[in-house]
Amino acid sequence: IKCMPKPHIYSKGVHYLLSDPSSPSSSPVLSCSSGIQADDDLKSMFVGTVMRKIKSRTWKKQRYFRLQEDCMTIWYKSKKGWTTSVFENSEVLQSLGSTLIKHTCLYIADEFPPDRCFTLVFRGRRGNLDLVAESAGEAQSWIKGIRKLIDNLENMGQREKLDQWICDWFKKADKNRDGQMNFKEVQDLLKMMNVDMNEHHALRLFTTADKSQSGTLEDDEFVLFYKMLTQREDVLRVFQEYSGDGQKLTLQDLKDFLREEQLREDGVQQYALKLIERYEPSDTARMLQVMTFDGFLMYLTSPEGSIFNPTMVELYQDMTQPLCHYFISSSHNTYLLEDQIRGHSSVEGYIRALKRGCRCVEVDCWDGPNEEPIVYHGHTFTSKIFFKDVVTVLGNYAFKASQYPVILSIENHCSVEQQKVMAQHLTQILGDKLLKTPLHGKFPIGLPSPEDLKGKILLKGKKIGGLEDSMNGVVDDSLMGEKSKQSLSKELSDCVVYCKSVHFSSFKHSQIHSKFYEISSFTESKARKHIREAGAEFVLHNARQLSRVYPSGLRTDSSNFNPQDMWNAGCQIVALNFQTAGVEMDLNDGLFCQNGHCGYVLKPAFMRNIDERFDPENPQNGGYKPLSLSIQVISGQQLPKVNIKEGSIIDPLVRVEIHGVPLDQAKQETRYIDNNGFNPVWYDTLQFTIHVPELALVRFVVEDYDKTSKNDFVGQFTLPFTCIQPGYRHIHLLSKDGTSIPPSSLFVHVRITKLT
């Protein structure tokens, strides 16, 4: 499916649906490919449908929904007029659709047939869109249509995203919707695009692009204007440095560039030919095995030209090590969408976390009405959801993003009777997915690996006796869980295999008495104290068994602690509030964006070997050789506006932060550029020394400089130091919620060298 409005499709006299969606003259113009025009589901979405939008028990109102011609936006009519809902970075759910409405809106479960209900789930902090169609057929048509469009969006290349971006700007600037742009509209467009350009220069570009001399820009004229506006002098400089004639790169020129700048060592000729074949738009150039400037720019803005090594985006690590040898993406109080006191509890929290690759989720269980356990933050005003609904969502979503095991961490406050109900729900709903006995029916000598546990859900909680007792059948129902005043039901206890929760006494006690299947939880402050006082012992402890660290109870606003401190000590389950955007979640996303986004990252060898002694507070004692990191921040491209005030243009600066062991923590900034968020140029070089590269994360942050108040956040990108590609690279920026904001990027030159 190709659903891409190209600039050349907009011709004089075409009416946009965006001009007035209710106007009869604005009949749906299928500005997508013929494949879309032939699709019945999408055609019905273009025509539009009346559906019920559900917000609460009492708020269930009919709205008219229609897919717009950009194939990325749904508009719906309300009393306020026409409102937009963009479904990039979203997913449509059904049977899930129906179940989800039942989960999120328990009060309407019996009011509408399940086959008419579906939900649009957005990434980030944006609330879901719960809808009820007039018929099951209409619901299916929208579900199938939206899934096709989301698949198309996810498969867009950089060039297509750029075309889409150009197209969007054209529509925003074409105020009178006549398919043309006069000079006043172009001036307004430049302000919207973060460009501060004097009128004379803007008029010169406009006149040059106006080939028809009509006083307006249409179709290809606007594309030409955009190309002149976005001319990449910075990339051209690099191109001409290696081009013999300034017009093309011969195969030898390209090989020289790849060896000398990108530090490519193996198979250079074959790789150069592959780049020409993949990115060179000219048939003649491809035939002659040369690369034009357009092809060179396409390569540098592609995933292969990204700062993130594409081979490390895929699953590349050994997944057969014991579970305790991995960092595990983990969520705290997963059911909460907001704060810890009055926040809304919802199964949406589990869906969002699991879709982000989270592999350890948490439930706080309490006795509920009618013998049904409920989940909420105890002794607070947070809303309540049923435990069985959480388990249902877990069963449906646990392995959508990753096949590797999910740990369900249970804070159990239920009576023995309702614990039996919990065990019943876990067993009946999850079935074979729930691990209830050791693998292969044998008593293990150590933790199994993520590979061994593929497709399995592990329960973390209190257990009666040990794993040995369970396998020998010596446990009876009257026993109490060790170190706990709470009675445990045998049924729930039996669901705990490899993750038995125990109280932590000391590292010495653990070394002598602890079993490999036991796991202790630490508040962030206790964990920091242990790291300060006995960092090396903590690392060794975590080489043998699992540890979980969770936020302080004082973080009622759902803020997060810095997870890097805990990873430095080898703590595997570092639980964060996934609903709260910020540097802490950027680091979490940065660490786990490697290795296929599978939620597991193999710890460095020196943290897995019990014969080594690594102290994160004093890494230099281990004989590690530091590296020098040099980053030249060259330029930025099409940075988003942060201030919606008309005419405001950002003053961008770039800060590079190193997060790692204390010795490596550092940050440096470029100078700020006045009034240019469109194509700022710095050529500023920042230098860092990295002592433990295996633990370091590098975060690039763009901010809007303000001399009188705190700088505004513009965009960021975080990645592991070990995943950096050297040379000339683009960094594709992400929003505060971690979603992409194409085509916003930075262009940098990276060099990593050994310090002697």
TrEMBL record:
Binding site for Ca(2+) 4: 649, 651, 675
Cellular component GO terms, alphabetical: endoplasmic reticulum; nucleus; plasma membrane
EC number: 3.1.4.11
Lineage of source species: Eukaryota, Metazoa, Chordata, Craniata, Vertebrata
UniProt-annotated location(s): Cytoplasm; Endoplasmic reticulum; Membrane; Nucleus
Class of this enzyme: hydrolase
Residue ranges occupied by any C2 domain in the UniProt entry: 608-735
CDD domains: C2_PLC_like, PI-PLCc_delta
Pfam families attached to this UniProt entry: C2 (PF00168), EF-hand_like (PF09279), PH (PF00169), PI-PLC-X (PF00388), PI-PLC-Y (PF00387)
Cofactor(s) required, per the database record: Ca(2+)
Glycosylation sites recorded in the entry for this protein: 212
Main location: cytoplasm
GO molecular function: calcium ion binding; phosphatidylinositol-4,5-bisphosphate phospholipase C activity
Sequence ranges assigned to domain PH in this UniProt record: 43-151
Binding site for substrate: 53-80, 460, 462, 521, 548
Domain EF-hand residue range list: 161-196, 197-232
Record-listed Ca(2+) 5 binding positions: 704-706
Protein's name according to its UniProt entry: Phosphoinositide phospholipase C
Cofactor notes: Binds 3 Ca(2+) ions per subunit. Two of the Ca(2+) ions are bound to the C2 domain.
